[in-house]
Amino acid sequence: MELPKFLFYAPYNPYNKVTNDAGENLSLVINLSLAQNVKSRNLLFFLYRLELFYRICGRPCLVDIGGVPNLVPLVKRDVYYDLSHLSNWLDMKEGLAIGAGAGPWKYVGVNSELIANFAFGSGTIEKSMSYIAKLDPETEKPIVETLPPGENNCAVLLNLLCSEGKPGKVIKVECKNRKGGLNFVSCMRNAMWKRFPCKFLGLGGVFVIKKGKAKLHIMPDFSEKPLNSDEEVASWLKFVEASSPLTCLSVFVTSDADMDLRVEHTHCFSSYGEGGHYHYDTTPEEVAYEGYFVLGETMYRVDRPTETHQIGRD
User: Fold this and answer.
1) Which of 52-56, 87-91, 132-136 has the lowest mean pLDDT?
2) Residue 66 · residue 82 · CB < 8 Å
3) How far apart are CA 74 and CA 81, in angstroms?
4) What residues pair up with 161 in beta bridges, in sequence order?
5) Range with lowest mean pLDDT among 175-179, 265-269, 275-279
6) What pLDDT, in 10s, does the model give residues 199-216?
7) Comparing C-alpha atoms, which of 200, 153, 147 is closest to residue 17?
8) 9-13, 32-36, 94-98, 121-125: lowest mean pLDDT where?
9) 3-state secondary structure string, the chain?
10) Of 117, 118, 212, 243, which cross-links 128 as Cys (Cβ 3.0–4.6 Å)?
11) For residues 74 and 7, what is the distance between their CA atoms, to the nearest angstrom?
12) Which residues are in the DUF1907 domain (predicted)?
């Protein structure tokens, strides 16, 4: 398809009005929220301590490409994206992209979960360490594998954190022993939304589930029957329980900002062949998280669906 027309959205610079006290404000807000949801937490924010986490800093921005309406009720197979164009969409000569989306079915052969992790240049993907999680069409056994060099596509939807790929100041969050009902990402996102209800904020980054297990899903091949409700989507998905350690790539925002954004999206993988879309941990007494995040300076909305709904957004 042609290069998507996109809406450039920067309602404010998040470092302006939340700025000099941004770390203090977010530290207090998320810390109080985590206190209600976990038994132990340790937050080190960038105004107080410099944490060097390679390659997620430098003009960080969030990117929402396509959307769930391209997947359900029925898939739009013509919605297919060549990610080598990413630098042009962002006006960024080179950088790093991490996030969660739908895999390139033309290459994989079936629908799949994309765990995106690649370095991009001007009109090219320079290096990729992306994974896909799929179901074997015959056995329904989960399969996690890396995408080969040169496979630069994704289908229907993708949420990314992009940056110049530099070391820099990040937000570090450590917590363990969940006691509340929210998952790790939702706890932070809800805390920011409640404290700053009139502001659009978004974080992206990576976290590791160091101990415990997590509930994930893997999409089967595209449904030939329309999926018209969350219940029908849930019945279609294949849910699995994965063991730690799991590396999770995550993007989340406080609201859809009237742009039909996906407010949170996280995909995980492991070195021993497990992965998929993160829902929550299943061992609250045992679980331990460690995450590194950056606050997005800009939100890009790429190829927003013309018709939308709220089905299948979990």
Assistant:
1) 52-56
2) no
3) 18
4) 62, 98
5) 175-179
6) 888 999 999 999 999 999
7) 200
8) 9-13
9) CCCCCEEEECCCCHHHHCCCCHHHHHHHHHHHHHHHHEEEEEEECCCCCCCCCCCCECCCEEEEEECHHHCCCCCCCCCEEEHHHHHHHHCCCCEEEEEEEECCHHHHCCCCEEEEEEEEECCEEEEECCEEEEECCCCCCEEEEECCCCCCEEEEEEEEEEECCECCCCEEEEEEEECCCCCHHHHHHHHHHHHCCCCCCEEEEEEEEEECEEEEEECCCCCCCCCCCHHHHHHHCEEEEEECCEEEEEEEECCCCCCCCCCEEEEEECCCCCEEEEEEECCCCCCEEEEEEEECCEEEEECCCCCCCCCCCC
10) 118
11) 25
12) 29-302
pTM of the model: 0.88
Contact 162, 87 (CB under 8 A): no
Domains, the chain, with CATH or none: 6-302 (3.30.1330.80)
Token code pair at residue 227: 């999926």
The answer to whether the beta carbons of residues 32 and 191 sit under 8 Å apart is yes
Name the one residue in this structure whose structure tokens are 């730690």.
Answer: 244
Instruction: Spell out a b/e string for 149-174, using b for 16 or more CB atoms within 10 Å of the CB, else e.
Output: eebbbbbbbbbbbbbbbeebbbbbbb
- Phi, psi at residue 284, to the nearest 5°? -60, -35
